[in-house]
Structure formats: C-alpha cells, structure tokens
Amino acid sequence: MGTVVIGPGQGQERYNARGSAMFFKAVAAQNDGDFSLMERTLPPKGRRPPPHRHTNCSEAYFVLSGEVSVVVEGEELIVGPEGFVLIPRGTVHTFGNASDEEARLLVLHAPAMDAYFAGLHALWNRDQPPSTDEERALMARFGMETLPNP
After folding, report:
1. DSSP letter string over 95-135?
2. Is the full-model pTM beyond 0.85?
3. What CA–CA distance (Å, rounded) separates 18 from 86?
4. Res 1 pLDDT > 80
C-alpha cells in the first residue's frame, strides 16, 4: 500500500458492528503492526463494549463531532469535539454515545488492533448477533480482559 490521502468516511478497510461504522485509515499491514487508526461513528444511545482492559496495547480517542462517554476506572468522562483521552495499557474502560446525536471519533491502538475489528465485523454480520460469550471470547483472543458490567 502506497502513501495516500484518505478522506472522511473512507478507509483502507471498512467494518460494521454494534451499529457503528469503522473506517480504518491505517492498518497493521502498513506499519509492521505499530498502530492502527480508525474513524468511527457511534449511533445515538448505542451499545457499549463490556468494561475491559487491553493487556497488549494502549488506546486513544479524539472526538471529531458529538459527545462520547468514556468510563475510565469507573469514572465517566464526557468528551466533546476536539477532546482527547488516552487509555494506557492495562486501564479498565468502556465507551459509548449516550446522546441523541451520532458521534464521530478517531480511535488509535498501539500496537495495531485492526484484526480484532475484522473479527468483530464477522461476528456482527451473521444472520444473528453474537452472544455475549462469543464477543468476550473474541476480545480475549486479542488481549482484552473483560469485566462484569457495573
């Protein structure tokens, strides 16, 4: 893959899961797995991933539009446009959109996590949505430890 300019709503890969569209601007194959970057839309009042911690990467959010609720170690942060949150490796977190408007954000994983989202897309684009156990098993395969929802 050569150097290219990728516009809004475009990506090297596109995935959908939990009502969210994910456009990967950078994927592991481009940078020896150093990082992945996605533009993600979150539907209003959409489903959150279970609280979890990444054992093998850090994650960061940069909100482009709307408001994103990020819960870090039990503390809820409301992040608006141009707000940034870093989730260091090992930090318990979840995120979602509790508002009535769509939210758009950039999500960075270092090292890359785009393979996980390809698997999530496969789970969510079957005839029936995945079970909680299936989703948690996929998360575990990619170094995420899940916790019970509060």
Report:
1. EE--SSS-EEEEEEEES--HHHHHHHHHHHTSSSPPPHHHH
2. yes
3. 23
4. no
